[in-house]
Amino acid sequence: MAEFPPHPDRRPALVTGASSGIGAATATALSAAGYPVVLAARRLDRLESIAKVLRDNDGEVAVVRLDVTDDESVGAAVQQAIEAMGTIEIVVSNAGDMEPAPAQSADTATFLRQIDTNLVGAHRLVIETLAPMMQRRRGDVVLVSSQNASTPRTLVGAYNASKAGLESFGRTLQMELEGSGVRASIVRPGPTFTEMGWSWDPALIDRCLKDWKRWGWLRHHQYLPVESIAAEVVNVVSAPRGTNISLVEVNPEAPIRETEVET
Question: Which of 4, 118, 162, 255 is in Cβ range 3.0-4.6 Å of 242 for a Cys bridge?
């Protein structure tokens, strides 16, 4: 059996979309597990609030402003992260957005904006961080996807397409990185309670839920807490050398039935 050198004791992690939801929970979980963490997003005030809590709990934390839709912003943010924490060992590409609309009424600019954020943004991040990992022959790239990648839902065609593209990109990375010592992993959340959707028009939310129930996507109304996804990201990057967790799909457990089902 091939021998793999262990991970170094210090593995700084860069987490995008860290100002709320899955990103904030992932940064918190990584910090609690002892990883130095760089919080990256556009909303610096939110990042600083989260960073203060982590530092108060003895976390080693830095904050950088990052807009994944801007080449220069991504490059500058990665450089600032390296200056603050040193070599980046772990990259968690989590920044994402969803703007619902029927396919026939969604304008091209809105569609493209979601592709840019959810798919191209991950590519920009990989461009800026992958080469040093390959030179060191170690590192982790984690792409946070969505169940929409494997089971498209109505009214969110751009989001479906972007997440399916993200997983295809991730699979390509896994093939191209094989034997390099760098691991690429996909974490695919099912229904998760985040801020996404809070700003939607209530009538559109109602339509989405009715459509999704019609197509069998709402078997129950349980949602995952963001901490469940964060725990899986920590599990992925904490795997020992020689282990690549290529895909993790996380779904909410259904409520306990009141009566036993006959078998």
Answer: 4
Write the pLDDT tens digit of every residue in 11-33: 999 999 999 999 999 999 999 99
The verdict on residue 78 lying in a domain is yes
Q: What's the angle, vertex CA 250, arms to CA 25 and CA 51, rounded to 5?
A: 5
**Nearest one of 111, 88, 192, 77 to 145, comparing CA atoms:** 192
Query: Which positions are annotated as active-site residues?
Result: 159
CATH assignment of the domain containing 194? 3.40.50.720
Low-confidence ranges of the chain (pLDDT < 50): none
- Measure the CA–CA gap between 118 and 4, rounded to whole angstroms: 33
3-class SS shares of the chain: helix, strand, coil, % to 5: 45, 15, 40
